[in-house]
Write a sequence for this structure.
């Protein structure tokens, strides 16, 4: 059975719903927790509510906790690579989990916790392992390094039941091409968080506008 058919635990939506909330999921790397709330507010104001905070910095877990106070934000953890990360992310209040890869222990733990889970795949073996575990929604990662859109089209043909969120090397110059492919429900990208002021701090006004443009992309 697909995990997208399972009823999520109270307070959780399923991964399919989250992937269809907006065409772009911001991939957020945050070093200063003081930037968490204004960044989340800018992204939500622009129409991107599903926010992936990567566990790549010491500030990540506190940023997840802070962003959850922003009305409308759906905050999850990315770069979850094992059960310890999963437990810490859930303790911080993560509403979904994204992993760069797919392992059986992590997938089983995520399913057991009832949390929406988006594991990374890069080849047919990864997808087959996911299907064996009851998963059919995947992060295609690293999207460009793994062969780009031609590679995903080749993979999607035999796995027609699967849906994807390509991440890695996707930006404003190629996002429309990815979203035009039907098995792609959304993409992950860091470019929406990139605008900076002259001083090097986040330009929240520009981020909100970039988010608005991303939220209005056709799928």
């Amino acid at each position: 059975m697909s995990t997208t058919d399972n009823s999520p635990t109270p307070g959780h939506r399923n991964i399919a719903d989250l992937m269809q909330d907006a065409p772009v999921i911001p991939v957020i790397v945050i070093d200063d927790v003081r930037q968490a709330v204004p960044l989340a507010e800018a992204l939500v104001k622009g129409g991107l509510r599903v926010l992936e905070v990567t566990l790549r910095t010491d500030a990540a877990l506190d940023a997840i906790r802070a962003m959850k106070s922003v009305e409308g934000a759906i905050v999850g953890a990315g770069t979850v690579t094992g059960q310890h990360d999963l437990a810490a992310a859930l303790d911080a209040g993560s509403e979904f989990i994204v992993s760069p890869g797919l392992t059986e222990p992590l997938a089983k733990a995520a399913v057991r916790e009832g949390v929406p889970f988006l594991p990374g795949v890069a080849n047919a073996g990864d997808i087959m392992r996911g299907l064996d575990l009851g998963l059919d929604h995947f992060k295609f990662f690293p999207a460009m390094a793994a062969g780009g859109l031609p590679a995903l089209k080749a993979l999607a043909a035999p796995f027609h039941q699967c849906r994807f969120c390509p991440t890695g090397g996707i930006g404003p110059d190629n996002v429309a091409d990815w979203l035009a492919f039907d098995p792609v429900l959304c993409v992950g990208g860091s470019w929406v968080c990139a605008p900076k002021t002259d001083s090097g701090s986040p330009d929240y006004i520009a981020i909100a506008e970039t988010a608005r443009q991303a939220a209005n992309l056709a799928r």
